[in-house]
Amino acid sequence: MNIIKVKNTEMGGKEAFKLVKEDLENGAKVLGLATGSSPITLYNEMTSSDLDFSNITSVNLDEYVGLDADNEQSYHYFMKDHLFNKKPFKNSYVPDGSNPDAEAATKEYDKIIEENPIDLQILGIGRNGHIGFNEPGSPFDGTTRKVGLTESTIEANTRFFEDEKDVPRFAYSMGIGSIMKAKKIILLAYGEAKADAIAATVDGPVTEDCPASALQNHPDVTIIVDDAAASKLK
Ligand SMILES: N[C@@H]1[C@@H](O)[C@H](O)[C@@H](COP(=O)(O)O)O[C@@H]1O
């Protein structure tokens, strides 16, 4: 794992952008994208750049079950707001949270991932080490599935909703197996709340207790962290 320490989220966005740009110059055609606050400075760099994404496909990690694309709390909306409205992609895929048929929604998404193999996957990380919405205990060979969110994730996401009871309890998430198939992975983590998760990801045992520890088995992972998130690394 390649670890890049940065002073702040702005510098993290710039470092990540350099890697994204380099990968696109080397012919990458499919970007795996993530939501949450961590990738925002990267998306700002992308939108203010002169890069053209109209030939690039994006595949997002996850979406809340029960929220349709127009819902302001949906990940569809987040991606449009932070990236796609300003930089349109050729195709942008996000799991269909408005489809109550989990079997159909997840199968459809696996087909999309299969048809659009991910060149570069951007990841954030949850406080408990989750990636996408793959909470602790998620199988390392998992594909897209409906997942229940843990209390700590619900609590962390409450800040985006008016009331904790409005936070969806389920999501459709790309599985760890699909994430691991990406050719390259960049994980972004900032702040003290991520320090334990980053230490477990990098220095801990490879275990389903920390979903991101699976990344130790991936050949091309870059982790971009600020001092606080890196504070518990060995
Ligand atoms: N499903 C998302 C994850 O993909 C994201 O990595 C995590 C951390 O978000 P943040 O970057 O805001 O800390 O939040 C959610 O759980």
UniProtKB/TrEMBL annotation:
<comment type="similarity">
    <text>Belongs to the glucosamine/galactosamine-6-phosphate isomerase family. NagB subfamily.</text>
</comment>
<comment type="pathway">
    <text>Amino-sugar metabolism; N-acetylneuraminate degradation; D-fructose 6-phosphate from N-acetylneuraminate: step 5/5.</text>
</comment>
<dbReference type="InterPro" id="IPR018321">
    <property type="entry name" value="Glucosamine6P_isomerase_CS"/>
</dbReference>
<dbReference type="GO" id="GO:0019262">
    <property type="term" value="P:N-acetylneuraminate catabolic process"/>
</dbReference>
<feature type="active site" description="For ring-opening step">
    <location>
        <position position="128"/>
    </location>
</feature>
<dbReference type="Pfam" id="PF01182">
    <property type="entry name" value="Glucosamine_iso"/>
</dbReference>
<feature type="active site" description="Proton acceptor; for enolization step">
    <location>
        <position position="62"/>
    </location>
</feature>
<protein>
    <recommendedName>
        <fullName>Glucosamine-6-phosphate deaminase</fullName>
        <ecNumber>3.5.99.6</ecNumber>
    </recommendedName>
</protein>
<dbReference type="GO" id="GO:0005975">
    <property type="term" value="P:carbohydrate metabolic process"/>
</dbReference>
<feature type="active site" description="Proton acceptor; for ring-opening step">
    <location>
        <position position="130"/>
    </location>
</feature>
<keyword id="KW-0119">Carbohydrate metabolism</keyword>
<dbReference type="InterPro" id="IPR004547">
    <property type="entry name" value="Glucosamine6P_isomerase"/>
</dbReference>
<dbReference type="GO" id="GO:0006043">
    <property type="term" value="P:glucosamine catabolic process"/>
</dbReference>
<comment type="function">
    <text>Catalyzes the reversible isomerization-deamination of glucosamine 6-phosphate (GlcN6P) to form fructose 6-phosphate (Fru6P) and ammonium ion.</text>
</comment>
<dbReference type="GO" id="GO:0042802">
    <property type="term" value="F:identical protein binding"/>
</dbReference>
<feature type="active site" description="For ring-opening step">
    <location>
        <position position="135"/>
    </location>
</feature>
<feature type="domain" description="Glucosamine/galactosamine-6-phosphate isomerase">
    <location>
        <begin position="25"/>
        <end position="218"/>
    </location>
</feature>
<keyword id="KW-0378">Hydrolase</keyword>
<dbReference type="GO" id="GO:0006046">
    <property type="term" value="P:N-acetylglucosamine catabolic process"/>
</dbReference>
<dbReference type="InterPro" id="IPR006148">
    <property type="entry name" value="Glc/Gal-6P_isomerase"/>
</dbReference>
<dbReference type="GO" id="GO:0005737">
    <property type="term" value="C:cytoplasm"/>
</dbReference>
<dbReference type="GO" id="GO:0004342">
    <property type="term" value="F:glucosamine-6-phosphate deaminase activity"/>
</dbReference>
<dbReference type="InterPro" id="IPR037171">
    <property type="entry name" value="NagB/RpiA_transferase-like"/>
</dbReference>
